[in-house]
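Budget justification, computational time. The allocation requested in the original proposal was used primarily to generate structure tokens for proteins on the priority list. As evidence of use, we reproduce two of the resulting records. The first is shown immediately below.
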Amino acid sequence: MTLQQLKYVVTVAETGNISEAARKLYISQPSMTNAIKELEEEMQLLIFRRTNKGVMVTNEGDVFLAYARQVLEQASLLENKFLGSTVQKPKFSVSCQHYSFAVNAFVDVIREFDADAYDFTLRETQTHEIIEDVSRMKSEIGILYFSSKNEEILTKLLKQNDLYYEEIFTAKPHVFIAKDHPLAEKEAVSLEDLEEYPYLSFEQGEYNSFYFSEEILSTLDHKKNIKVRDRATLFNLVIGLHGYTVSSGVISKELNGEQIIAKPLLVDACMRIVAITQKDKGLSRYGTAYLEAIKRHIAQ
């Protein structure tokens, strides 16, 4: 296995096409194809599945590529330090549930390092995909929550995937409602207060059980249910339908505007927001800065 072979497979994955990757790296297509084949044989795995439309990364290949990218980045840092060569674009990825503080912290990291070029990814996605992304090293960090209802199942799943978690903060449940909602003047609201209003939650795909729900108290019955996939749609429905969702209570006026407010929910429960990472694997400087940024936003 060589660094050159790793560059080949990473470039093919980025372009989705061996011919395009070969042109980009100024190498003939047969030479690149042979180099990738030799690497797959050496590693005893299939990195790419060839199709009529190009190539697709296999599940095994996905894991291999995550390690390959890290090796190339470290090699680039060594070259820059000792040879004065140009550093590759830094890469950093986070997968998270739909939290504004997670987005704010991501912005802080980009501003802090202020690189001329970078390749960062923020995925607001489903709970199961967050765990999968970190286990496959698509993301360095995952952000999700534990409750008394889901903690046993989620910690078991993390252990199975050899992942570690660190608690960032504990929050009492709040409801997000529009500032002109009929309940907006109350200091706190009860489940009975909310009974007639639409309940909004994030859809979890094939893992749509309460263990993977983003919303605490998801086991309760609601007369009116609406499931969505993204935060903008959810907040539009909160405003347009006088709906509500349940979350940590940490809200960003910069990201979500002045129309959404948080009110304490009168229930005996709590949410533990945690960061999940690869076990026994240190964080990059971007990962460390990201968790520090989250803690700053929570403190504020």
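The second record produced under the same allocation is shown here.
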Amino acid sequence: MDLTLIAEDLAPGDRPAGASDWSDLRVRRVVGPDDPDFAPAYERLWGEFGARGEMEQRAVIRERLAWDPAQPVGAAALAYELLVLRRGGGVAAIRDHTAVVRVGAHGRPLPGPIVVHLSHALVEPEHRGTGLVGWLRSLPLQTARRCAAAARCAPDAPVVLVAEMEMRGAAGQGRSEAPGPAGPDARMARLRSYQRAGFRLVDPIAAPYAQPDFRPPELLAGDAPRPVSLGLVVRRVGRESETTMSAPELRAVIDAIYAVYGVHVPGAALEPLRAAAAEWTDRPAPFRLLSPTA
């Protein structure tokens, strides 16, 4: 299934990319595990992120592809997408992400934003620096709208794109929105790119977010979970210039991320993080939104 490019969806700092000629760019959504693009796309992501512990097992991705946002999973409507972008006949980039609408009784949407959790973004070396990454940051908005329609959200519901990223000087490994290789230099280049686009970092001192331990249950059973401290980098669509975020909105964003992970991560690894986040988001003051490279 092909997607079209929507220039209006580009983040403020990515809008110059809309002026270039992208007529040869094809964006295709993988529709299931039997899709001919599934195996090569998964293997490319695994080759880039798997050794660093930043990519889910194939069985998890297969299950996510079957999620139907009209049929909530637990307390959330979930729409996962794996996209393959081709230019000039070859694969130029791959990305995946999940749109989340939190739901309550009878599947009705809860107050708060539609959240898109940005998982992996990979731009092949020959296409880096072309502006293609800007489209990778904008395409998830189409997923947000698809999920919102299926979950019967109000058409004016706010949208938040969120990526978990290692901060400057961080030593741990974690899943991140990564267009290139790992390492401190690549990490800073990634943060600068998102900063230029208009994304902001939730103050990590006030918001000590952690990603759950993704090791298989059989390994977790004999060891204490080891969560990974990461920063939350967000684009609040249409509100990119705002410098604070309310505690209830941040709580909704974290609930949405944990709803994605909660389908496959054992409760022993996830529930302590839910409880901790509920505690530090229980405050009247808003959270500062900083430059990602601060």
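A brief technical remark on that second record: The chain has one domain: 2-290.
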